[in-house]
Design a protein that fits this description.
By secondary structure, this protein is α+β, with helices and mostly antiparallel strands. The protein has two helices and four strands, in the order E-E-H-H-E-E. The protein has a four-stranded antiparallel β-sheet with strand order 1-2-3-4, with no helix packed on it. A hairpin with a 6-residue loop joins strand 3 (about 65-70) and strand 4 (about 75). The protein is globular, with a radius of gyration of 13 Å.
């Protein structure tokens, strides 16, 4: 996985890109807010999230993406 995001799809309203280090805190917040929908239902700490990302980053056969709505100021992460 590259240290920078790769945009896989883009149109005039949104784009789909690979996650990067800058996304990990938001992903942790989203996961903790929606924990009832996950197998692992405990609150994830910042340290656990960092450890997860370090392991995930090394895997070549697992991919995660984020959708960003394209706005005038800057993209807004929506899912």
């Amino acid at each position: 996985m590259s240290a920078e995001s790769i945009i896989l799809y883009e149109n005039d309203k949104f784009h789909l890109r690979s996650i990067n280090h800058a996304d990990i805190e938001l992903l942790r917040i989203w996961k903790n807010k929606n924990k009832k929908y996950f197998f692992h239902t405990s609150i994830i700490t910042i340290e656990q999230q960092l450890n997860w990302f370090e392991s995930f980053y090394l895997m070549e056969d697992d991919h995660m993406y984020i959708v960003e709505e394209l706005c005038e100021e800057k993209p807004i992460k929506v899912g």
